[in-house]
Amino acid sequence: MTLLGTTTLLAQASKKIIVEHSDYFDINQVETPDAVLLTGNVRVNHEGVILTCNKAYFFQKENYIKAFGNVQLVQGDTLYLNSKYAEYNGNMKQAFATGGAVMRSPESNLATDTINFNRNSQEVYYNTQGTIINRDNTLKSKSGKYYVAQKKFQFLTAVTITNPKYVIKSNHLDYYSNSGQSYLFGPSTITSKANYIYTEKGFYDTKRNVAHFLRKSYIRYNDRVITGDSLYYDRNKEFASATRNVKITDSINRGIVKGHYAEIYKNKDSMFVTKRAVAVNFVENDSVYIHGKKLMVTGPEGNRIIRAFNNVRFFKTDMSGKCDSIYSSSKIALTKLIGNPILWNGDNQITGDVMHLIGNNNTQKLDSLKVLNNTFLVSKDTLGKGFNQVKGQNLYGKFIDGKLHDVDIIKNTEVIYYMRNDAHELIGINKNVSSKINIIFDKKEIETITFLTK
Questions:
Q1: 369-374 long-range contacts, Cβ below 8 Å, gap at least 24?
Q2: pLDDT band at 287 (very low <50, low <70, confident <90, very high)
Q3: Which pLDDT tens digit goes with each residue over 169-216?
């Protein structure tokens, strides 16, 4: 029979489901005891939630309804739930939808097989494979929960966010659909053409493409890996910064840079490291350490420049030194020690106003040394308390297998040298003034000295 005045007939209290419309109304106690059969353009209302469908069984005593065909549940302008079949409990304020279930909100769409909606807590949850579309982001997960008031999705099982620029994977992710902000917990990865990011606690803003990562986090480019207690990343600028326990590993150039703060500019192929900065380069089965308050590394492989500032020190197995700053170019294999340079090679100490270390790009070894103005070389007499000293204007030295082999000191040279016989007895102290001196070293000690005059 046709439903007339149904609203008045069924409305009892504000908590009761109200049938606002149905083309047909029928009661069959044999097939569906205690249920009212509603068919055709069914529309019911429960405290502001509107449910429409093609057909429904309405259990008045239980305040419960089962809906079939083109089911839609609408809560204001915050939530739309569509499915082939749904159940709604007015007493519990809970809905269950299945069969191609789709939930729409102003910011996103969720498609899955089965969706549950709890009006009391304003939570939507599902335990079947689901896909969420939000602007440029597509989220897929095996289960999830949506907090209507906060507009937040929460995933506690495998979830993937696919964006044209990157892919995020995590086992615990909170995603705010209105702001596009993601919070990552536990092992999580972000993969793109530009880099690969790993974190176990982090934040990623999918709108602004900026991120902040904590706990066991690192960013890996093609040739570099950046780690630190705290990482900041801007994808638009391809800029990253790291704070505390910073470590940047360069696999191509076989180097490591450490410090407590770093900035990395990928597009400029450069980095800036400060606060107890240390650069370690692996050359000839040896490690070269450069330490300073600040380190700058710029340029691509083959044209890389390293600058170190403020009280710089460097060390390798057979050589060490210090100065105010260092400039080192891989392209021309030149390292400049600037400002009060001091070089130690074995037991020899060399100083001067300007000091250059020149390498060989073919052999990747040190080739020569140049010291300009006020050159001074001193070494301890190994058998006594005195010091051998050589003074001059400029020094030119040659390395063999990374060790200083011979030097020429020219112009206004002066020497104080402790001479010993074969029994290592002191036989005199040589004091000499000449225009040029040649010194040959053997096993880091002075072997011979040759004096040349005009």
A1: 369/343, 369/395, 369/396, 369/397, 369/398, 369/399, 369/404, 369/407, 370/394, 370/395, 370/396, 370/397, 371/341, 371/343, 371/395, 371/396, 371/397
A2: confident
A3: 999 999 999 899 999 999 999 999 989 999 999 999 999 999 999 989
pLDDT tens track for 335-363? 899 999 998 877 788 999 999 988 887 77
**Residue reference for tokens 């919070």:** 183
d(CA 26, CA 18): 16
Task: Name the pLDDT band for 7 (thresholds 50, 70, 90).
Answer: very low
Q: 182 is written with which tokens?
A: 């993601």
Amino acid in position 121: S
- The residue written with tokens 């896909």 in the block is 131
For residues 334-373, one letter each, b for 16 or more C-beta atoms within 10 angstroms of the residue's C-beta and e for the rest, the string is ebbbbbebbbebebbbbbbebbbbbbeeeeeebbebbbee
Of 77, 50, 82, 80, nearest to 65 by C-alpha is: 50
- Three-class SS state of 107: coil
